[in-house]
């Protein structure tokens, strides 16, 4: 009782050999069994001391979950087994009927890997065109400014 | 004597309300000790109690040791993600009033075993102590808590 065997057993970490030892001792030594029961009881009271009250509505949630499981099980049991005369196609159909299709159509698209390079090329070209457009826009703006300055200069000279 | 103390009459029906009234608060406290998050703990409580009661009723088990079984069931469900020993010790650093009477090593050993199901040999390796020492610390921790509760 002082070896810590009961504690490892009650904490659920006893080895197979230790479990056998405990089971054997409970049969042969009533005082060991009493001490083990007392320890189990104390562990339960310890858990009670660390308990937290669940929020309202928790029991209803659990009941709902259980009802759903039970309804699903009942539906599965109510469905008659396909007869042996069914061919494979009919059996497959019957099997499909038992399940609800949660998501039958995917909204994903599959693309061949070869398109990867095309997408990269389009991306790089897009960047080059964007840079070129910005460059020519700035060039154009600078040229416009220069023309305006020249016009002003010319007007002043003419006067 | 202990049948009366344990307060587990054998003929008691094991429906969900019975389980809920008896173990929901204890289980939520236990789950919260592992998960450390209120909302997640409540969600896990619903899942664990639902599946446990289904399995339990189906297996027609006796009333004895229900809490121990339920605790281990919850432990297995919640500890499927393997934590490294360092993570485990960091998680354990959160203080818990129920364990106030224990010293640091006893807290680490008790919580690693109680909440995470770590074995004596695993703890001996990760904490760099002998197996006998870890076993002794676990026993001391439980003895201290029992004494602190007047048992």
Percent of sequence in beta strands of chain A: under 5%
Shape of chain A: elongated
Output the helix-strand order of chain A.
HHHHHH
Number of helical segments with 4 or more residues of chain A: 6
Number of domains of chain B: 2
Any idea how many domains of chain A? Answer: 3
Order of helices and strands of chain B: HHHHHHHH
Low-confidence stretches of chain B: 1-13
Low-confidence stretches of chain A: none
Most extensive interface between two protein chains, with residue counts: A-B, 38 and 47 residues
Helix content of chain B: over 70%
Number of strands of chain A: 0
Percentage of residues in helical conformation of chain A: over 70%
Structural class determined from secondary elements of chain B: mainly alpha
CATH architecture of the largest domain in chain B: Orthogonal Bundle
Any chance you could write out the topology, listing elements then pairs?
The complex is a heterodimer of chains A (159) and B (151).
Chain A: H1 5-10, H2 16-28, H3 30-49, H4 58-78, H5 88-97, H6 115-158
Helix pairs in contact in A: 2-3
Chain B: H1 2-6, H2 16-35, H3 38-59, H4 66-78, H5 85-92, H6 104-116, H7 120-127, H8 131-148
Helix pairs in contact in B: 2-3, 2-4, 3-4, 6-8, 7-8
Structure description:
The complex is a heterodimer of chains A (159) and B (151). With 159 residues, chain A is mostly helical. The radius of gyration of chain A is 40 Å and the shape is elongated. Chain A has helices spanning 5-10, 16-28, 30-49, 58-78, 88-97, 115-158. Chain B is an all-alpha fold and 151 residues long. Chain B has two domains: 2-78, Rna Polymerase Sigma Factor, Chain: A (Orthogonal Bundle), CATH 1.10.1740; 85-148, Arc Repressor Mutant, subunit A (Orthogonal Bundle). In chain B, 71% of the residues lie in helices and 0% in strands. Chain B contains eight helices and no strands. Chain B has helices at 2-6, 16-35, 38-59, 66-78, 85-92, 104-116, 120-127, 131-148. Chain B is globular. Chains A and B meet through α1, α3 and α4 of A and α1, α2, α3, α4 and α8 of B.
